[in-house]
């Protein structure tokens, strides 16, 4: 094995990248939890309700739980692989070491686009929220949301530029507030504290499965939104003090938190809002938990959920900037992209060029595309990434069986999670096809073209053997 | 095996690479939108004959929620009755499956070729 210290405080620790200054190792398990849950929790505050529109309230609940199974498999698989691949880039670096450069390039792009689109969706929601607050506080004219969208993205990019510890500590605080707001709303409206206002039976009457079972399949498309981004915990791998411990702990605690939050969110919103309104995230419930609070009649809940929605969108956008920039940085460092992006700020120890470069990209999407299209683009990139994961873990176990590399975490029942994940990905591809088939084909067409561009042009600038930076033995079969 | 020495890339070439990637990315999202092929639009195929909550299929509890949200039967008409069309052709489904399989076949095949080269250089033949 190569003699490389992956927890070095001074070098980048991952082998011959040529950088003298590395990312700073300052994060603990709570930051990993905050990164994962912070990115995703906004999915409970907006976006998941498109699943209700696709198939009705029951369909959204079934999608919530099946997507929960999908993401539990993702978290288990990711935790095992990433506990041995402690490097920025997360799944990109995993693919580079386990499957090959072209797969890694594609996975890197999945990550960047999934997170940048999610960041754009968050900024759109934040802009909407500011306009609602303006109208609630007496502003008569329609508020121009664009300055707020720009401000949100610029502020968070600046925060990321200045340092990862402050960025993720900020995330930890606002994510905890947003999560507590969901719990308080549930306790206040379900009858646990005071009188309940839930009317599930009456609101579902006559609309149990408005599209039949095909609606349940279709709902899987936006069912992913309940959890999309939890896999981003791996991006912090090069900045945590103890990767083998913190990453599995933070990721698995994160998915458990989200399973609870997603189910409570569905329960509260579907018991208060009619399904047609709830399911229309453009003309109806843009921020369904906030709408549920408005119908509760409690001013305190309206403010709490207003802040919860704002905090969730900020936490998510913040985490997305963090993750997308790490993936872009890692690809630049390996010369998969121009090497200029692979620089670390000499003072703040952040991938500052990647952070700054992705700002205008996020702004183009936030200002130029409708919310559901942006969400779909993000989901599709995520879905392609989840389809890669079962292939990744199967090859990882074949090339490096358990006795050859010590894992920080070994996921149980292999290969059942991999097969389950692949099956659920297939179902979700069909769900996307039902409504957004053109985007799906356009996007895969994009990845095919960009793959050819990489293989036949870009890859010539990449060092061959130097890409393999893990201190692992030679893979079996090679 | 001889160690591969990558060529040094000039600044202009690096810039062109970034521009190409950004243009392709923006195109993948915006071209379907510009061509009105984005899909997923809902439409009202069976409009209500009269503007009442009953005609819209809403019971008393559902109607009360809509009124609390500020809707009337007239303003809620399209919101309540608009539906997705999940009809599709077998050929379209087969095309999608073929495109996905082709994509994964392509990247796994090329990746394997590149990976063997990496392992060979890293660990020796």
Layout of secondary structure:
The complex is a heterodimer of chains A (478) and B (125).
Chain A: H1 29-40, H2 42-45, H3 50-55, H4 57-82, H5 91-98, H6 101-136, H7 146-162, H8 164-189, H9 200-204, H10 213-223, H11 243-272, H12 275-278, H13 288-296, H14 299-333, H15 352-368, H16 371-399, H17 416-456
Helix pairs in contact in A: 1-8, 1-11, 1-14, 4-10, 4-11, 4-16, 4-17, 5-6, 5-16, 6-7, 6-14, 6-15, 6-16, 7-14, 7-15, 8-11, 8-14, 10-17, 11-13, 13-14, 14-15, 16-17
Chain B: H1 11-34, H2 60-68, H3 73-81, H4 90-123
Provide structural commentary.
- The complex is a heterodimer of chains A (478) and B (125).
- Chain A has a single domain, classed as Amino acid/polyamine transporter I.
- Chain A has 17 helices and no strands.
- Chain A has helices at 29-40, 42-45, 50-55, 57-82, 91-98, 101-136, 146-162, 164-189, 200-204, 213-223, 243-272, 275-278, 288-296, 299-333, 352-368, 371-399, 416-456.
- The radius of gyration of chain A is 22 Å and the shape is globular.
- Mean pLDDT of chain A is 89; it is low at 1-19.
- Chain B is mainly α and 125 residues long.
- Chain B has a domain at 42-83.
- Chain B is built from four helices and no strands.
- At the A-B interface, helix 6, helix 10, helix 15, helix 16 and helix 17 of A face helix 1, helix 2, helix 3 and helix 4 of B.
Number of helices of chain B: 4
Structural class of chain B: mainly alpha
Quote the beta fraction of chain B: under 5%
Level of helix content of chain A?
A: 55-70%
- H and E order of chain A: HHHHHHHHHHHHHHHHH
Number of strands of chain B: 0
Helix-strand pattern of chain B: HHHH
Tell me the Rg of chain A in angstroms. Answer: 22 Å
Structural class of chain A: mainly alpha
What does the radius of gyration of chain B come to?
27 Å
């Amino acid at each position: 094995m190569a003699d490389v210290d992956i927890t070095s405080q001074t070098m980048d620790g991952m082998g011959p990248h040529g950088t003298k200054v590395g990312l700073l190792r300052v994060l603990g398990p709570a930051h990993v939890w905050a990164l994962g849950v912070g990115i995703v929790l906004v999915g409970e505050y907006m976006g998941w309700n498109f699943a209700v529109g696709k198939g009705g309230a029951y369909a959204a609940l079934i999608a919530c739980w099946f997507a929960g199974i999908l993401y539990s498999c993702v978290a288990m698989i990711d935790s095992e692989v990433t506990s041995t691949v402690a490097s920025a880039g997360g799944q990109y670096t995993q693919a580079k070491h386990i499957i090959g450069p072209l797969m890694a390039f594609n996975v890197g792009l999945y990550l960047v686009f999934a997170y940048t689109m999610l960041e754009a969706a968050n900024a759109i929601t934040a802009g909407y929220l500011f306009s609602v607050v303006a109208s609630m506080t007496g502003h008569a004219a329609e508020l121009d949301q664009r300055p707020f969208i720009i401000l949100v993205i610029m502020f968070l990019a600046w925060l990321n530029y200045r340092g990862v510890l402050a960025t993720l500590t900020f995330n930890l605080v606002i994510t905890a507030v947003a999560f507590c707001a969901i719990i308080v709303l549930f306790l206040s409206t379900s009858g646990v504290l005071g009188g309940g206002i839930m009317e599930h039976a009456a609101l579902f009457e006559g609309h149990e499965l408005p599209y039949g079972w095909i609606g349940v399949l279709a709902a899987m498309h936006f069912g992913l939104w309940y959890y999309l981004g939890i896999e981003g915990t791996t991006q912090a791998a090069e900045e945590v003090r103890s990767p083998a411990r913190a990453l599995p702990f933070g990721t698995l605690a994160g998915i458990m938190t989200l399973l609870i939050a997603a189910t409570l969110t569905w329960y509260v919103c579907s018991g208060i809002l009619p399904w047609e309104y709830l399911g229309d995230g453009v003309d109806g419930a843009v921020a369904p938990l906030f709408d549920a609070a408005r119908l509760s009649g409690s001013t305190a809940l309206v403010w709490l959920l207003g802040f919860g929605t704002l905090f969730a969108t900020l936490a998510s956008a913040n985490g997305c900037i963090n993750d997308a920039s790490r993936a872009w940085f890692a690809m630049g460092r390996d010369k998969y992209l121009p090497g200029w992006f692979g620089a670390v700020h000499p003072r703040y120890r952040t991938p500052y060029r990647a952070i700054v470069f992705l700002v205008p990209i996020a702004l183009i999407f936030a200002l130029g595309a409708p919310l559901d299209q942006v969400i779909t683009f993000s989901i599709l990139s995520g879905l392609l990434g989840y389809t890669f994961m079962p292939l990744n873990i199967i090859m990882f176990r074949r090339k490096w069986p358990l006795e050859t590399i010590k894992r920080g975490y070994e996921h149980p029942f292999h290969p059942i999670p991999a097969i389950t994940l692949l099956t659920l990905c297939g179902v979700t591809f069909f769900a996307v096809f039902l409504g957004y088939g053109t985007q799906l084909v356009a996007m895969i067409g994009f990845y095919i073209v960009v793959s050819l561009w990489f293989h036949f042009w870009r890859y010539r600038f990449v060092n061959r053997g130097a890409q393999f930076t893990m201190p692992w033995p030679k893979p079996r079969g090679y | 095996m001889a160690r591969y020495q990558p060529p040094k890339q000039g600044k202009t070439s690096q810039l062109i690479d970034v521009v190409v990637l950004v243009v392709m990315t923006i195109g993948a999202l915006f071209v379907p939108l510009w061509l009105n092929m984005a899909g997923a639009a809902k439409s009202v195929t069976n409009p209500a004959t009269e503007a009442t909550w009953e005609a819209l299929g809403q019971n008393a509890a559902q109607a009360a929620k809509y009124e609390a949200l500020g809707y009337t039967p007239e303003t809620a008409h399209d919101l309540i009755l608009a539906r997705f069309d999940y009809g599709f052709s077998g050929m379209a489904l087969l095309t999608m499956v073929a495109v996905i399989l082709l994509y994964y076949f392509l990247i796994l095949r090329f990746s394997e070729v590149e990976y063997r080269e990496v392992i060979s250089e890293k660990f020796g033949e």
